Amino acid sequence: MTDAPAHRPTMGDLPLADRIARAMPVLLVPILLVLGFLAIGNPSSWLTLTVSGLAMGMMIFVMASGLTLVFGLMDVINFGHGAFISVGAFVGVSVVLGLAEWTQAPSLLLNLGVVLLAVLAAMAVTGLLGWAFERVIVKPVYGAHLKQILVTVGGLIVIEQLIHVIWGPDEIFFARPEMLKGAITFWGAALEKYRLLAVAVGLVLFVAMRMIFRRTKIGLIVRAGVENGEMVEALGYRLRLVFIGVFIAGSALAGLGGVMWGLYQEVITAGMGEEMMILVFIVVIIGGLGSVEGAFIGALLVGLLQNYIAFLEPKVALISNIGLMTAILMWRPQGMMPVVKAK
Fold it and tell me: Where exactly are the transmembrane stretches of this chain (predicted)?
């Protein structure tokens, strides 16, 4: 008789030290919240900065979530991801400006309707653009990282110039919808309405992505493809179509993030996506390749840390995120929750 195969150890089977080590990435956010509270001292200031940091983190997560899946599943270094952020912002803001009567109306329903239409338009355009980008630019250079960097950077530059041609070279300033302006007061802190909306959207998206990846067939195929693409293809699934779908979805999420960031800043430029890619790549790297959960935690850490440091030591804020990335990678070289090993 052969011995029964040993079962895979669960969290309950592990020693306490190992369980704490596995849970540390999740614990980093509450630890940072407590440290921020102790350093700032004033509860109302801490709450305002915390909501601001969470909102910033959620918007970065929206942009980074698609890119980390593209990294993990397709092994593609896509510097052109920033172009989808910019295009999404311009398409969404065009919708907002085109429905000025709705945005100026003192009706929350109409204002949210404008934002929803802007988001849908931006995601549709950037999803279609992502499909064309993958077919024309990325497909010929699968597996060649240096060429991927060169051609995707080239694609980013071309799309930025097309934005100049279509929308003009100047910055576009605009106002948020009427009911999303201003702030509400809670516990002596001024909490901007739009930042609260951004936090809610980010949480809903994160929960939806977790449910899709853990409870649907396509989600399981994507997760399996990230971990072992050859095995998935051997089982008869057309992973190439999954590649295309993930790339389109990632591009659409970048467009969504672009709209949210544009409404947050109330100004858009053709180079805004390129500027945001620094934070997006930091989040993807410290979160771990292919990990949506890692990107979520990493984005919250980046948003919170930048807001806390900017309040406490403004000069240090410029390097705070680089310092965070360095510390995380010294602790866990593959990122906090990697699904695949860095190649």
Answer: 20-40, 46-71, 83-102, 108-133, 145-167, 194-213, 241-264, 276-304, 316-333
Taking all residues of the chain, what is their mean pLDDT, rounded to a whole number?
Answer: 85
**Tokens representing 123?**
């995601």
In a domain, 40, yes or no: no
Distance, CA of 120 to CA of 113 (rounded, Å): 11
In this structure, which amino acid lies at residue 267? V
Q: 36: closest CA among 20, 26, 48?
A: 48
Phi, psi of 40 (to 5 degrees): -80, -40
Residue spans of alpha helices (H) in 180-228: 193-215, 217-227
What is the residue range of 150's domain? 52-169+180-331
Distance, in Å, from the CA atom of 30 to the CA atom of 125, rounded to the nearest integer, reads 37
Q: Which amino acid is at 141?
A: V
Residue 86 has pLDDT above 90, yes or no: yes
Domain assignment present for residue 37? The answer is: no
Give residue 21's pLDDT: 67
Q: How many domains, in total, are found in the chain?
A: 1
Tokens encoding 269? 């430029």
Contacts of 195 (CB under 8 A, 6+ apart): 51, 52, 54, 55, 264
**CATH code at 151?**
1.10.3470
Any idea which residue has 């980093």 for tokens? 28
Per the structure block, which two tokens stand in for 86?
Answer: 């910019």
- Give the tens place of pLDDT for each residue, 91-109: 999 999 988 888 888 888 8
